[in-house]
Amino acid sequence: MGTDTLIQKELFNDCESIDTRKSLKKCVKCKKVKPITLFRDDAFKSRICKDCCKKRDKQTRELKLITPAPSKDYKCPICLTDAKKHEGVNNQWCLDHDHNTGEFRGWLCNKCNAGLGYFSDNINYIKRAVQYLEKSNDNS
Questions:
Q1: How far apart are CA 24 and CA 18, in angstroms?
Q2: Domain boundaries, the chain
Q3: What CATH code would you report for 1-58?
Q4: Which of 3, 25, 44, 131 has the highest CB neighbour count under 10 A?
Q5: One-character DSSP codes across 38-79
Q6: What CATH number was assigned to the domain covering residues 67-140?
Q7: What is the tens place of the pLDDT at every residue in 50-105?
Q8: pLDDT (tens digit, 9 = 90+) per residue, 71-82?
């Protein structure tokens, strides 16, 4: 199996977890195969079963209670934009946390938080994305 195939398999492994013939799906969090009806309908959370979503949501609510909100002049540590740039955006600051330990990492803007989420907080994915962008910029 070539490197490209391995990368695709690694990035899209949750696609293999769906068995449409049996209406079963594997939760990427608890790794259990469950009926599709035990997954939420929305695209992002559909990779995680409802039970794991409830646990994660509770963990996030509890973490928000003990974590002070960022100051008015706070800037996202990734894109360096401030609150003015995000006015009118729902949840302009997202509580970023380690999904394995539940530990608070910092506040991010909604876009950057979603970006890390789409990369599954996987440093190797992010490094390859940087290499991809650097390579395409070299060709410009």
A1: 6
A2: 1-58, 67-140
A3: 3.30.60
A4: 25
A5: GB-SSTTGGGSBHHHHHHHHHHHHHHHHHSPPPPTT-B-TTT
A6: 3.40.1800.10
A7: 998 898 888 888 888 888 888 888 999 999 988 776 655 555 788 888 877 778 89
A8: 888 999 999 988
